[in-house]
Amino acid sequence: MNIIDIKNLNAKVGDFTLKIDSLTVSKREKIALLGENGAGKSTLLDIISGVNKNFTGELKILNKQVSNYKPIELANLISYLPQFSEIIFGFNVFDTVLFGRYPKTLGKFDNYDLEKTELWLKKLDIYHLKNRKFNELSGGEKKRVMLARVLNQDTDIILLDEPFSMLDVKHTKTVKEILADEKKSVILSSHDINILKGLVDEIVFLKKGEILCKVNINDLNKEILNEVFEVDFKCINGFYFID
Ligand SMILES: Nc1ncnc2c1ncn2[C@@H]1O[C@H](COP(=O)(O)OP(=O)(O)OP(=O)(O)O)[C@@H](O)[C@H]1O
User: Fold this and answer.
1) Measured at the alpha carbon of residue 45, what is the angle toward residues 129 and 157, in degrees to the nearest 5?
2) What is the 3-state secondary structure (H, E, C) of 1-55?
3) Which of 10, 57, 210, 222 could make an SS bond with 233 (beta carbons 3.0 to 4.6 A apart)?
4) Which are the contacts of 44, defined by CB distance < 8 A and separation ≥ 6?
5) Does the keyword field hold Transport (predicted)?
6) Taking CB atoms and a 6 Å cutoff, what residues make up the pocket around ligand 1?
7) pLDDT (tens digit, 9 = 90+) per residue, 206-237?
8) Domain span at residue 221?
9) How many domains does the chain have?
10) CATH number of the CATH domain containing 196
11) pLDDT tens digits, residue range 163-212?
12) How many A from CA of 111 to the centre of ligand 1?
């Protein structure tokens, strides 16, 4: 069963047009959005998440048009890590992650919510930062806090805009393993092609606001990458490099 159905979607942001004729995501499917800067990855994630409602066409979540959901219903279905997170002012790390459980609890947090929060703090290796102010953290620390918050929201659909950017090698591995283990539908954008193996099922290539193709991760080849990114890739042992 499809959890997301997109048909004839058209959205304008400034001079840019996103035009998605058809895209479906099934339950527990993991998809990566790849494409050059400005291809429309964030715009598409903004639309699926409900942040950008300015589009025409069909966007169904669990067979129901997204505009027919109340915001709180959507927040119980979809969690979203935007590319930049500047939303939290005076909150410390613990409360920032705890608030991922707001849609489920409407703020009436119980022991289960506190335990879940502690669990994600530990998994994302930010437990030692739990009393620190979010705004005072480094870029990679902030990213891990926002990821913990998203995972604490515990939704069937997880949208992640460049979840690996700013992470060091060790925490990139940690986050990849966590996401690979999640039995959820995940759509993530990334500029790191080599991280996707063992993580996603399909890659959707975007170019100039349109889907160029959807490719199974096992069918990826350098010809596709050459066409999308207009550079000459080398493939060594299944990993892609440029000179
Ligand atoms: N609020 C806005 N006003 C005007 N133009 C916008 C706005 N948001 C995005 N755009 C334009 O839409 C296009 C697509 O942007 P988008 O952020 O979706 O690209 P992207 O694929 O996520 O890129 P990147 O890899 O750089 O993150 C870009 O040309 C961008 O300049």
Assistant:
1) 70
2) CEEEEEEEEEEEECCEEEEEEEEEEECCCEEEEECCCCCCHHHHHHHHHCCCCCE
3) 222
4) 18, 20, 33, 206
5) yes
6) 13-14, 16, 35, 37-43, 83
7) 999 999 999 999 999 999 999 999 999 999 98
8) 2-86+157-242
9) 1
10) 3.40.50.300
11) 999 999 999 999 999 999 999 999 999 999 999 999 999 999 999 999 99
12) 41
Tokens of 89: 């002012």
**204, 209, 62, 51: CA torsion to nearest 10:** 120
- 209 C-alpha to center of ligand 1: Å? 9
Length of the chain measured in residues: 243
Q: Is residue 207 part of a domain?
A: yes
| Domain annotation covers residue 191 | yes
Q: Is residue 113 part of a domain?
A: no
Tell me, yes or no, whether 91 lies in a domain: no
Q: What's the gap between Cα 82 and its chain centre?
A: 7
Render 128-158 in DSSP notation, one character per residue.
Answer: GGTTSBGGGS-HHHHHHHHHHHHHHH--SEE
Dig out the tokens for 33 from the structure: 């959005």
Beta-bridged to residue 31, according to DSSP, are: 187, 202
Enter the tokens of residue 37: 């800067």
Which ipTM value was assigned to this complex? 0.98
Q: Under a CB-based contact definition with an 8 Å cutoff, are residues 89 and 136 in contact?
A: no
Distance (angstroms) between ligand 1 centre and the Cα of 40 equals 6
